[in-house]
Input
Amino acid sequence: MIGVTLESVSKRFPGAGGAAAVDNVDISIDAGEFFTLLGPSGCGKTTTLRMIAGFYFPTSGRIRFGSEDVTRKPPNKRDTGMVFQNYALFPHMSVAQNVGYGLKIRKIRGAEARRRIDEALRQVHLDGYGDRRIDQLSGGQQQRVALARALVIRPRTLLLDEPLSNLDAKLREETRAEIRRIQREAGITSIYVTHDQAEAMAMSDRIAVMEGGRVQQIGTPQEIYHRPATTFVARFIGRSNVLSLPVVAADVQSVEVRLPDGATRTVAAPSGHGLTETATALVSIRPEHIGLCGPEDPDALPGRVTDVEFTGITTNLTVDVAGQELTVAAVEVPAEPAVGDRIGLRLPAARMWVVRP
Amino acid sequence: MTVTTTTAPQAPRTDLAGDSGRIHRRRRIADRLRGGAGGGWFPYLLAVPLALVLWGYVVQPMLATFAESVEGDGADNYLAFLSGSGVARSSLLTSLGISAASVLTCGVVGVGMAFLLKRFAFPGRRLIEAIILVPAALPPLIGAISFQLLYSETGILPRGLQQLLGTAEPVLPFNGIAGVLVVHTFTMYPFFYLAASAALAGMDPSVEEAAYNLGAGRFRVWRTVLLPMLTPALVSASLLVFMTSLASYTAPLLFGVDRTMTMQIYINRTNGDLPMASTYASVLGVVSVLFLLGMRWYEGRRSYRSQSKGISTHRREIRNPVARWLALIGSLLATVVLLAPVATIALVAFSVDGSWTTQVLPTDYTTQNFVTIFAEPRALQPILNSLRMSLLATAGCVVVGVLIAYAVRRLTFVGRGLLDVAVMLAWALPGTVVAINLIAAFSTGNPFSLGQVLTGTFWIMPLAYFVRFLPLVFRSSSAALAQLDPALEEAARNLGASWLRAFLTITLRLMLPGVLAGALLAFVHGVGEFVASVLIYTSSTAPISVEINNRMYSFEVGTAAAYGMLQVVLIFVVMMLSGRLESGGRAAREATRWTN
Output
């Protein structure tokens, strides 16, 4: 079991106007870790994964598996197991032949190969499916064959490129738990690419949020949710309100900002935030952390309701506060609010956090 | 419901589901027609006349040929194929042998080209891709003649090399069967090239990547993943090349290989032994039909086309400077080889008749050949004949072809599958066999010729063209129809249009680019037709190709090439027009995507 390190990796494709698909990315993945590259389409996550697999070579930078430099190694010498978005099963082979393909290349034959294939199929709950043709399987089953095919060779790292995106919603949730279970059992370093933030949060030990070819933030799901580093991360992971507020006083780990009604809050800020007095800070607060009360409440920020949406679990309000729109997700509302009602908002300082633009 | 579906029983389940949807749709439109046109007999109003046409001009003539072959001596003629030493048996074996060898050479060239051009980026690639189909576009006679002028014992290349190297004999001449194979390779490799490139383009690149990821090297990926996945495409291409080689007539004619099936048909016919010619035609016909059925059976099976949403295939850039130079030189060489046939015809067209004897290239040049063709009424006549006969045949092909396509694709009636098979039968039969069939059927009065004798008259010519090229129009119409959502026609009916009006203003209108492309194809093929014509023409109905052949025999090579040049120009004009239509077709496809 080994870790994977990317050092200042960049990738430019010829004819893309010199724009970098991946721009100076530094990532260090621990051995046995489930690490996710998360971001919208075109953010460079798949390109990064394909560089780790060896299908692209970086324009600059190094990639290491443990201490070994694999930057220029061809894909068939890297010993990674990859699960492709569309599974990429060999249509002219049976399930067992698909799973056994990598073993054959590794000169594992006969009884040993059969044992490993059976074991891999059992692991993905497909025992007895070895003789099936690929087109006789459902999408979920094909996905599991692809996983078995990648795992059976006991690769140094498992690479998963949006493996759940072709499954329907219910199957997706079941399979993600299944993948996590198998990964834990095998204890294999895994790199997972997705654009689905819920998937990333549920599965990962750590997440790298990418945008525009750059890494925006690396951290555990909790860190990324509660302490987003940038406006992009705050808005991409869950929903968030990002308020522009004038800075009254600045410290190393915090700044004091003024709310539209004149009240001030001392808000945690990442070290090196570089904000000074008279600057404007971007402050993030999650919709579910905003409390509701009457408009006359002395601690409340007064506003006017502009939209109400009932979802079952929460009631989502859009509230206009001195020209800035805030979204509030309340599990309980005092009285059924209506559009045009005046309402008070409670913004607890502990739930607020300064983000970079 | 009595539907004759063509779905293979082992088709995967998802396909069956799709098919039943289609059948359901078909039934819906049939119900509508029933309601609109007053009864369940409506599809038959269309189908019966079409079936009669196919029976009268395709199937019945085939049976007449068989009757002719057993008339005098019973099965005696067929016994000739069983005797060890006879011409008949060796002709059959030679034909089969040439076809098998052609499959091999075309396969190597076609698949190799597809891989090079679709998988690698190198200097000169675009140029080759632009002209790669040129040799195959030539009319069969012109193709064979140009190769004879280039590569035979008296050809430009062997003589050029003889002069260059100072040897006593021409160097590397292609004669006899070798010459036939060269012609076949150059004109038929596109079957493999097109099939392999389509399969490569349809292949999910991540399947290949998965193999690399599991540790396979490049050769192993080739052997265990790429080739097996190309197999369906390669098998269909092999069958096509085999059938086309079997039907090939001009190449053996020009390279003097008498013992092939097609040549024996021609020789027996010109010697007046129609029963024996019919025997050969029947045997060749049966073999062709077997291949047709084999092809339909094979195509009904699954093929490996994956619906990839992933990254499209990247061409591998050739970076090694030595390899780049080799690639460039190879591209230039390939370009010369691909364009040489057309260039040769163009050059020889301007040579003075009878002036070119033992020199490498013609010595004296003139434009007189073209002047003669257009100034002398006797020389112009073949062109007028070809145009008139081809036009007549094309008109017939469009009317019948479009209606058959509509009936087969959109209506439900007993025998729908048979109608489909009958059209493809016309496609599978070699030109020589079609000619013999028509001779056998229409040398006496026949209900389908309104009691008239057609053999030896003008009318048998356009009729032969009609039979040969009907499948072209049928196929392109049918493909155009497949792109159209039946709901469009239903919408028109729903808004109050009669069936005829809906068909004319919606369905036929949207099919038009496809129909026109097919019609143009049928027309050029008619103008270039030689194989059937040479068996049924009379002195007053000789078409261009027959005239070219006659001029070649009387050593008027320049004039022959000039006729050929006119055919080639016509073909390129039509190809350009079809290219324009292609965008029209794409527009139609775009439209269907929006309405789906």
Summary: The longest strand of chain B covers residues 120-121. The radius of gyration of chain B is 26 Å. Chain B has two domains: 42-63+368-596, 90-300+322-349.
